[in-house]
């Protein structure tokens, strides 16, 4: 068996981020081959991940990234099993790498796109596996979305203070001047925060699936079966109007001023900025 020197152990520790004893054991198993030892540590992470495949990852963090020009932004979730690991240096190192992956990723959605993104010879999947090996917990990317402007507008992101809920909203504007106005930037930030708090199902009524609409109508109708048919129809219609107002972003009462809808807040801000604006899309991610 090859002699394992302290310098070899330190080199592997620097490469892998693993503890000294884990590095020494891997080097002994690899007969002093540092690259072979690195592969052993990686396999250890894969084995741990497979063993814990059924465990819930209800902790973690929403990760955001925005380009310097403000025209591209993205959100992803990195999940783990416990709050203790979510606050660890190993996990936060993985968060930083995932943030870089959001920037470099060629895809615009799906955890697989992040995991396949490669930076300096290392993929997102390599980093999550290494973090599994270091922490002993199941680690994984849950969600991912990236928006890129194709015309005048702005993208705003918001991460709740606990780091476990985040939102991204894209707003189209009539021109770049409107997009650059402070009042519209503030409105966009407020709307992103609003989405985080209210969990809208859709931007507008047309975005809600027919199945959900039929289910809600059936529930409302069941609640008033003792009424005449024409009355039931009116009651269901009224309840659905309230359902849309609670679940469609544009119709929701704005959390910072419930005398206005989200649509009105954006419209007034855009008008004050000298133009028009509309929400193109949004996404809301939550860990746990």
Outline the structure in words.
This protein is α+β, with helices and mostly antiparallel strands and 288 residues long. It has four domains: 6-51, Helicase, Ruva Protein, domain 3, CATH 1.10.8; 56-148, Elongation factor Ts, dimerisation domain (Tetrahydropterin Synthase, Chain A), CATH 3.30.479.20; 151-208 and 248-288, Tetrahydropterin Synthase, Chain A (2-Layer Sandwich), CATH 3.30.479; 209-247, no CATH class. 49% of the residues lie in helices and 22% in strands. The chain has helices at residues 6-16, 20-29, 34-51, 83-86, 89-104, 111-115, 124-135, 176-180, 182-198, 210-222, 229-247, 262-272, and strands at 59-66, 72-80, 118-119, 122-123, 140-148, 153-159, 165-173, 253-254, 257-261, 277-286. It is elongated and about 85 Å long.
Number of domains: 4
Can you tell me the CATH superfamily of the largest domain?
Elongation factor Ts, dimerisation domain
Give the CATH class of the largest domain: Alpha Beta
Strand content: 15-25%
Strand/helix succession? HHHEEHHHEEHEEEHHHHEEHE
Mind telling me the C-alpha Rg? 25 Å
* Number of helical stretches of at least 4 residues: 12
Mean pLDDT across residues: 89
Number of strands: 10
What coarse outline follows from CA principal-axis ratios?
A: elongated
Lateral strand order in the biggest sheet:
1-2-5
Under CATH, the topology of the largest domain is which? Tetrahydropterin Synthase, Chain A
Largest sheet: 3 strands, antiparallel
CATH arch. level architecture of the largest domain: 2-Layer Sandwich
Kindly state the percentage of residues in helix: 40-55%
């Amino acid at each position: 068996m090859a002699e394992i020197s302290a310098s070899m152990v330190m080199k592997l520790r620097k490469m892998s981020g693993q503890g000294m004893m884990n590095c020494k054991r891997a080097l002994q198993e690899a007969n002093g081959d540092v690259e072979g030892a690195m592969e052993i540590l990686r396999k250890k992470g894969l084995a741990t991940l497979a063993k814990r495949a059924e465990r819930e990852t209800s902790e973690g963090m929403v990760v955001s990234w925005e380009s310097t020009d403000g025209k591209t932004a993205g959100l992803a979730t990195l999940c783990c099993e416990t709050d203790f690991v979510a606050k660890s240096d190993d996990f936060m190192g993985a968060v930083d790498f995932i943030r870089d992956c959001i920037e470099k990723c060629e895809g615009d959605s799906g955890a697989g796109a992040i995991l396949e993104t490669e930076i300096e010879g290392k993929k997102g999947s390599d980093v999550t596996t290494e973090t599994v090996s270091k922490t002993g917990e199941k680690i994984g990317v849950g969600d991912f979305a990236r928006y890129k402007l194709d015309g005048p507008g702005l993208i705003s992101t918001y991460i709740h203070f606990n780091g476990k809920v985040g939102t991204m909203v894209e707003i189209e504007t009539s021109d770049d001047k409107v997009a650059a106005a402070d009042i519209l930037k503030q409105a966009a930030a407020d709307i992103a925060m609003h989405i985080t708090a209210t969990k809208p199902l859709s931007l507008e009524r047309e975005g809600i699936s027919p199945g959900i609409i039929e289910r809600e109508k059936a529930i409302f109708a069941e609640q008033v079966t003792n009424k005449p048919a024409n009355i039931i129809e009116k009651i269901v219609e009224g309840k659905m109007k309230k359902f849309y107002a609670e679940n469609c972003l544009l119709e929701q009462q704005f959390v910072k001023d419930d005398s206005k809808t989200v649509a009105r807040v954006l419209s007034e801000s855009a008008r004050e900025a000298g133009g028009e604006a509309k929400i193109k899309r949004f996404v809301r991610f939550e860990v746990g």
